[in-house]
Design goal:
- The complex is a heterodimer of chains A (622) and B (50).
- With 622 residues, chain A is α+β, with helices and mostly antiparallel strands.
- In chain A, the strands form seven sheets. Chain A has a seven-stranded mixed beta sheet with strand order 12-17-18-14-15-16-13. In chain A, strands 1, 2, 3 and 4 form a four-stranded antiparallel beta sheet that branches.
- Chain A contains 23 helices and 24 strands.
- Among the domains of chain A are: 82 residues, Arc Repressor Mutant, subunit A (Orthogonal Bundle), CATH 1.10.10; 82 residues, Arc Repressor Mutant, subunit A (Orthogonal Bundle).
- In chain A, helix 1 packs across helix 3.
- In chain A, 27% of the residues are buried.
- Chain B has one domain.
- Chain B is 64% helix and 4% strand.
- Chain B is elongated.
- The chains are: A alpha+beta (622), B mainly alpha (50).
- At the A-B interface, helix 8, strand 5, helix 9, strand 7 and strand 8 of A face helix 1, strand 1 and helix 2 of B.
């Protein structure tokens, strides 16, 4: 770098002086950056050289000024007040540094005058695959969007299509202008707009307000928010929810339909969670969040942060493994591990889900007699109990029942705990509503004790909504005492039998499982639940038991009406009439015959089985 | 902002968080979506005005 000596002009004396000064100033700034300015005043230089040469200072100053002014390509002369200052750099002449900030990352990221264009995502091809599969927005080309009517067709600006543009703009004008002025103003307005359209790219501004949702749906932000919500409301909410859930920063968290910033949600320590858990176990039943807040945290609903605290409690508990949300909208109930189970333990949840699976397969005929709207409007539902429902204290979660009972609040909620009150007996029962999952049906359980105590199979019950979203009333029509021999299951022997029973409720005579109508049912085997799940096998057994034998011993045949089969099949498992009809029609061994059905069992193969059949006949004849 | 660069559920979310926090209590998600659409709309239309 030191080799880059500038060349000096002027006489030999001036050149020597300029070079000497240059070397002097260069030595002065030897630790400066190569292009940094090195400054020196004329006074200092004159003092230095006058002392060295022992000459007149004024004359020396004159010589220096002349020599350096001659070499103004190296020495920049500045006058500041009375001082004359010369500026050089170690490289020679001083040139102020030009900082090129046109490609700063900050500028490119935050202040794009013209951001990098995203022309067409379809042309971007990558050969790498992400390690984790992520849901990416689907980009649809403009052509197909226009074909599907998602975006307005954009006329080609290069081709003069004035008529089309005028029509488009006139249409917009019609929307904006009052109807009365339409005829008068439409023509001039259209002309003005046509000119404006030529001047400004109206069409491109329409496209610029279209945003794509993650599922590919395009919405125009130019439209009023109310319109967008009215048209795409559920989609927008669903997409927004999923965006919040997939946000790595989890900036906004939700519980049910409420949302709040995660950073502002209070946290609960292990000790506080343990206190909640102990309290729930001590109480023995699910509790409302408001009750937990008042009893454990002594928070008052009048406190300004009450709703925030409530949200925090619900959200934090929903993230804990030990707690399960069993509430509904308007009644946020919490349960925990170790609490007493609600409902029968005789049937496993997985088996019950399979037994009620026919509802999810499309054989739900519960709305044949009363529409879902009527149920929602009146808030009541009437239902005739079958033997299985009565025996196990359950009700299948039919569409009719779904119209009455609340829907799950959380997307992954499996159960809800409800309270059924009996105004006739001043009692209440906790019931568990199991929501359907996949191909498994839903049901309500926990009514075993109430049904056994007050009702019989065939009883007509009415479930009605109350002011509380999780409380319902269960009523039935009372009547004078009636005695009958009704079907019961002897659990010790695991056999069905008829026993004398007194009851005080109104019943549907056809659905009452008494000895007079369904005497053959005492031979019904109480099949294990694993067998009852197979509806076709169960129906064959039921048909053989309840059907009237019309064949011979070598070629047995049985005949029964659909009504009888419906009652009998519902002894072993829940089934709708639609499902029964489907099962009968699906099997070639069942034949329809003038309103009745005939069943011809397949020929027996082994002698052992024949003996069993004979035993059955013998039982029947007794 | 160019509407093409808007990512639904990401763009303008910080503004929504600020608004939600300032409100002082949890909000219904349907109302939040409406507010969010307004934020996006302001962003996009502001670009258009420029």
């Amino acid at each position: 770098m030191s080799d880059n000596k500038p060349t000096f002009a002027g006489s030999a004396e001036q050149q020597a002086l300029a070079e000497q000064i240059f070397q002097l100033m260069k030595a002065q700034g030897s630790f400066y950056a190569a292009d940094a300015p090195i400054q020196q005043t004329l006074d200092n230089l004159a003092d230095f050289f006058a002392a060295q040469r022992k000459a007149d200072r004024a004359r020396v100053a004159q010589e220096i000024d002349t020599a350096l002014s001659t070499n103004d390509s190296v020495f920049t002369r500045e006058e500041r007040g009375d001082d004359v200052i010369y500026v050089i750099s170690r490289l020679g002449a001083y040139r102020p540094r030009q900082e090129d900030t046109s490609h700063m990352f900050k500028q490119r990221l935050y202040e794009p005058e013209n951001p990098l264009p995203v022309d067409d995502i379809s042309v971007v091809v990558t050969t790498t695959r992400p390690a984790l599969t992520t849901v990416e927005p689907v980009f649809i080309s403009d052509y197909w969007q226009q074909q599907a009517g998602l975006t307005p067709v954009t006329p080609n600006l290069g081709v003069p299509e004035e008529e089309a543009e005028a029509a488009l703009i006139a249409e917009e004008e019609v929307e904006a202008a009052p109807a009365a002025e339409e005829e008068v103003e439409a023509a001039p307005a259209a002309e003005e707009e046509v000119e404006a359209a030529k001047a400004a790219p109206v069409v491109s501004s329409i496209q610029n307000t279209m945003i794509a949702l993650p599922n590919g749906v395009q919405i125009d932000l130019r439209r009023p928010v109310a319109d967008l919500v009215a048209q795409y409301g559920p989609t927008l909410i669903a997409q927004f929810r999923s965006a919040l859930e997939s946000d790595p920063l989890r900036r906004i968290v939700t519980f049910g339909n409420d949302a709040y910033p995660e950073a502002a949600v209070e946290t609960f320590g292990k000790n506080e969670l343990r206190r909640i858990r102990d309290y729930l176990i001590e109480t023995g039943e699910p509790m409302l969040d408001s009750q937990i807040i008042s009893d454990i945290f002594y928070h008052n609903p009048r406190q300004p942060d009450y709703e925030t605290f409530r949200f925090a409690l619900d959200y934090r508990l929903s993230r804990e493994k030990d707690f399960e949300f069993v509430g509904v909208e308007g009644a946020r109930l919490w349960s925990t591990k170790g609490m007493p189970a609600i409902g029968t333990k005789r049937v496993k949840a997985s088996e019950m889900g399979q037994l009620t699976g026919y509802l999810e397969e499309g054989f739900d005929d519960s709305l044949a007699d009363q529409s879902a709207d009527a149920i929602r409007k009146t808030g009541t539902l009437s239902h005739i109990l079958t033997f299985f429902e009565w025996e196990y204290g359950m009700l299948p979660y039919t569409k009719a029942l779904a119209a009455l009972l609340p829907t799950p609040l959380l997307p992954d909620q499996r159960t809800a705990v409800l309270r059924f009150e009996s105004p006739q007996h001043y009692s209440s029962t906790l019931v568990e509503l199991r929501y359907p999952t996949g191909n498994r049906g839903g049901w309500v359980q926990g009514l075993e004790e109430f049904f056994r105590e007050h009702l019989v199979p065939g009883a007509l019950i009415t479930i009605a909504r109350t002011a509380e979203p999780h409380i319902f009333t269960l009523t039935y029509e009372e009547q004078a005492e009636t005695q009958d021999r009704l079907l019961v299951l002897d659990e010790k022997k695991n056999k069905f039998a008829f026993a004398n029973v007194s009851y005080y409720c109104a019943v549907d005579a056809d659905m009452l499982v008494n000895q007079q109508q369904y005497g053959r049912l005492r031979n019904l085997k109480s099949l294990p639940m694993s067998e009852r799940r197979k509806a076709d096998v169960t129906l064959e057994h039921v048909f053989e038991t309840v059907g009237e034998p019309v064949g011979t011993r070598s070629e047995p045949r049985y005949r029964a009406t659909t009504d009888v089969l419906f009652v009998a099949l519902n002894v072993l498992r829940p089934a709708s009439r639609d499902y029964l009809t489907h099962l009968l029609g699906d099997n070639d061994q069942f034949e329809a015959d003038n309103g009745t059905w005939t069943y011809a069992p397949p020929p027996e193969e082994s002698a052992e089985d024949e003996d069993e059949d004979e035993d059955l006949y013998d039982d029947d004849e007794e | 902002m160019d509407a093409k660069n808007v990512i639904f559920g990401e763009t303008g979310l910080d503004k929504l968080v600020q608004m939600l926090r300032a409100s002082g209590q949890p909000q219904d998600i349907a109302k939040l979506v409406e507010r969010y659409l307004e934020i996006l709309r302001d962003l996009v239309l502001a670009e258009e005005k420029r």
